[in-house]
Design brief:
This protein has 2 helices and 12 strands. It is globular and about 55 Å long. By secondary structure, it is mainly beta. 9% of the residues lie in helices and 40% in strands. Strand 7 and strand 8 form a beta hairpin.
């Protein structure tokens, strides 16, 4: 009984100082939708390459007939890469996806035609550093749900008291497999992008001390 009373006092103390959430682990995380490819337009202007001007780019479309086998999906982004356009390129969202919450992980259904290329996620950290986070090798055929950890790869702490920081998801980078069949056409599709997030913990009164490792 004494231990329970002491625990209650400790919880109240931490709550008053804004140091920890009162909810349990299962209650603080929630799933949010980042992009469903239904409200934005995508075209060749969203594709970029560092190769010489005039390099052929993939065909980009939004399809209602070719979607991932997930509940609620109505439209997916489809990239058809002809054999004469199978070069490295970036696909950028019309507007960066900005997330102010603490992201645990991001899940993306991705279709591959077994091209053996590689797909990465382009992310801008709260320090304005742009990094590529590996998503998947495309050495499979069909749809696969890809989950990548953000909490283990990016510092998401608010370093200044009451100053919100955010992560910006910019798009994708495709790197073809150098030994691909030169006659092979590559097909990639991307569907609803979701994230597991929670509210950020408030820092202690000493702004140099943060609660998250």
């Amino acid at each position: 009984m004494i231990a329970l009373r002491n625990f209650g006092k400790l919880t109240l103390f931490l709550f008053l100082y804004g140091m920890v959430p009162i909810l349990g682990e299962a209650g603080i995380w929630r799933e949010i939708l980042l992009e469903n490819f239904e409200l934005s337009n995508y075209n060749v202007e969203n594709l970029r390459t560092k190769l010489e001007k005039g390099t052929k780019l993939p065909e980009i479309t939004l399809s209602t007939n070719f979607t991932a086998p997930i509940p609620g999906s109505k439209q997916a982004l489809v990239l058809r890469i002809p054999k004469d356009a199978n070069f490295p390129f970036s696909l950028y969202f019309p507007k960066p996806i900005e997330v102010n919450a603490f992201i645990k992980e991001i899940t993306i259904p991705i279709y591959s035609s077994q091209s053996n290329g590689n797909l990465t996620l382009i992310i801008e950290s709260q320090d304005a550093e742009v990094r590529q986070l590996n998503l998947t090798s495309l050495n499979y055929r069909g749809w696969k749900s890809i989950t990548v950890s953000i909490s283990k790869n990016f510092d998401q702490n608010d370093r200044v008291f009451l100053q919100k920081s955010s992560i910006r998801i910019l798009g994708f980078f495709y790197l073809p497999y150098e030994n691909n069949d030169p006659n092979q056409e590559v097909l990639i599709a991307i569907d609803d992008i979701t994230a597991i997030v929670r509210d950020k913990y408030r820092p202690l009164r000493n702004k140099e001390i943060l609660l998250e490792d």
